From TrEMBL:
GO terms for molecular function: FMN binding. The gene is nrdI. This is Class Ib ribonucleoside-diphosphate reductase assembly flavoprotein NrdI. It comes from the Bacteria. Pfam families: Flavodoxin_NdrI. It comes from Fructilactobacillus cliffordii.
Amino acid sequence: MEPMRILFISIEGNTRNFVNNLTAYAQKMHQQDSAHPLVESVEISDQTDFAQETKPFFVTVPTYLDGGDGIDSGVTELLTTTLGEYVGYKDNAKLCLGVFGSGNKNFNAQYCLTAKRYSRMFQVPFLADFELRGTDQDVQRIYQDMVERSAEVLTAQ
């Protein structure tokens, strides 16, 4: 079974920490039962050379915005644009299975807004959210979401 791929960007380390925990959890599950897929992660940064993706992937993106409330007034996405450009590169978006978002609930309407914007922009489902570094329950829930979404897409093909 192919590993489930996840592309992410991490500014302050929260998303990287979450993805590392997700990868470790997948490894643990796979060791218990090889039917559980592994998770392969790829961190995208300003130094990343853009490439044509060849396998399905998920995206995890934090929210860094300037201005606006996410509803009535405009916002400017900060710091995470490289990941959006990477997903939009050539036909990469066609292989995106869905988006997970992180953020800080203190920012109300802007919570996970970047992931929701990616969902609309690339016409893929916004699958789930987690706050800051996430919890063990978030890791388990999102792993299960990835497994279910992967199976759903494979069944549809």
